[in-house]
Amino acid sequence: MLFSLVWGRCRAVAAQCMGIGFLLALGACNSSDGQIAQTSYDVTVQRTQDGVPHISAADWSSLGYGVGYAQAQDSLCTLAESFVTWRGERAANFGADGTVSWPSSFGTPTNVDSDFFFRSVIDDGAVAQFRAEQPKRLKDLVAGYVDGYNRYADRLRAGDSPGAHAACTAAPWVTHITADDLYRRFIAVNLQNSLALYVRSVAQAQPPGAAQAAASLRRYAAWPAPGHGMTVKGKSGIGSNAMVFGAAATRNGPSMLFGNPHWYWEGPDRLYPMQLRIPHQLDVAGATFLGVPVIMLGFNENVAWTHTVSTAMRYGIFELSLVAGAPTRYRYDGNEEAMRAVPITIQVRDQTTGALAPLTRTLYRTRFGPVVDLSSLAPGLGWSTTHAYAFADVNLNNPGTISNFLDWNQATSLDDFISIQKRNAAAPWMNTLAIGRNNPNVWYADIGAVPGVTDALAAACTTETGRSVDATMPGLPFLDGSRGACNWTSFTLPGAVSAGRMPVNAMPSLERTDYAANFNDSYWLTNPKAPLTGFAQVLGPTGTVQSLRTRLGDQIGSQLMGASGGVQRTVLEQTVLGSTSMSAQLFLQPVIDSVCGTNTVAVAADPSQPDQTQAVNIEAACAALRQWDGTANANSRGANLWEDFWGWADWAGTLRYTKPFDAAHPLVTPDGLDTTNPAVVKGLAEALGRAVLDLTAYGIALDSPRGDVLYIKDGQARIPLYGGCDVQGYFTVTCSSNPLGPQGEPMDSNGFGNSYMQVVSFSADGPQADTMFTTGVSEDPASPWYRVSTRIYAQKTWTPFPFSSQALDSMPNVTKTVLTGTRTSQH
Fold first, then answer.
1. How far apart, in whole angstroms, are the C-alpha atoms of residue 363 and residue 117?
2. Do residues 514 and 527 touch, judged by C-beta distance below 8 A?
């Protein structure tokens, strides 16, 4: 009883109790694991001149303390708002109709829908189960992180850093966090490429005739897709580039890794760089998401690894056959089974009066997972009187994700790294590529949490609706929920780590001495000399068209390996930032030759009214394209025009080829624009005309430098950037999901692309790593580290990472902060 009273009081006054006294009292509010362990923290945080924290501690909880403090120091406003989101308390703080401040893996649902989603999917039971299965060292990291974060928040409120985090310092939602907040964050990581793509479909699923009707759902543009299909407002590119070169490719030199996640530039899912040290236990560097106290991709003394987004499905849909007259009951193996009604009440703040009012929805669960309303994706996929649809997410029961990263952080060799991956099979939605010290091999694997759906099961159990869905979402398990024989969530296949999972030996992997790479197409052409085939469709397609970025990536890899002496670090680092467009490389000249023989073209300014055309002069546009060098470097003139032109041409379906796709030659086909086809030439001309209209309307010169349009702000100044979006075939991805407008395409909001970049090899002295942090370490304009590393990135300058203590101590302008304190939080 006493605990319940204290806990209720703590949560009720959390917004007001930001002092040190509350930090000490909070210990009584965090526990579900027993008595508080009164241990002391002692951690040193050193920061290089770009702000990257190097955190050294004697134990796991002290290390977590340093990470929590440092991340709060750099990103308090984002973290505080995100903890509100993951707790399902947005509407209580920001009103019903607003959305999150930045894009993330779960999109931008309304606050109300976001709250119902997180309160239903990551409820207290899910948190408790996840927490119970974590190793002690991770629990200690979490407890320390909580106290470190809370300490920084307290010190900021006490006035220790005047002007810091001005956007949120006084906000009532900047409160203390608990260990459960971090576990919610960990589960959110798991769901990024599965259930998080369907927030509204979960939050608004109601039986037919309920007040919340399917007609009120917003329409999605298309089915959410894995891999490079992850989109931000329709622009693909959220994914990564990764290449690993073995001794055969480096001519008996050390193996080499290039990792380049194309990821969010802001928000909780942006990548945060750091180094973590505990003597004789841990020494690892790299990057992670905000709110995660381990390295997710990086390097230690023995291994280096990186990730790309996998094309494997991490979820499935079960079609439920409902009992007549009872839309919340379904048939299963000849019996009737009731859905479990889950009433959820959230608080909603009136933005005018500030008053809170309760709002309740009843959502429904099945033996497979939550009921979802998919009518916004396709007519007929709503909850009707005869059918409903349940979502089964393999990552809802994947407690090993973060502890797997922690195991990798401590890997002692490439063989150990591989053994960890196979033993845990916990990677939630990514491919993994790795190299090891004194090892000539490279490693690729898409071994992780994947539904255990064999092709035979899919063939026997896919419903008629599922066969229709397969045309747009091939490989998605869309199965009969009325038969237990189709319920993959209950099967434990031989070699699988748990029920519902694909066996480890049934997932693709490759270990070679030459080369492996992934650019967000499937595992198929990881090494084009040794295609991977024979795996279940749920793991991704083979024999299909590859993206322009994949084709350019293979070209880059081949050129690097073909050079005299093999792959050279300096050449690699220059080439991957070259900002070449594969679409321009293949098609720029044919476009000029076919379209630029005339001065004007007829263009429908509004594509929805094609009969209402206007004449557009394209002479200046053709002149700009003729002098363009085919790259999107900051000073390149013509890239802005090409980007808009290619977007229109791709959107209109204009692109037809003389050499169609050939699975026997997948990296050089399709090719040859069919400019003998009048419809193709007409479509290309119209696309160029529309691009002229767009740029002219926004006051952008047709031959404007790329950096005039693509940039990021630093106060009133602009930092010109380079690169482009995935659809144009840029390997160097820097893409604003904001539509082109008078301000160009600023990366200050809704930007994604190159993020944490690393080139790593090993010598007798340990890891030799060059890195880039495109987004900057701190997002606070008052910070001395704000935009520092972004300016370094803009200059295409790789920075040697000071991994050893001696290298760090020799760096100029290193700051040191020693943090001590008493542990008050619990696991």
1. 9
2. yes
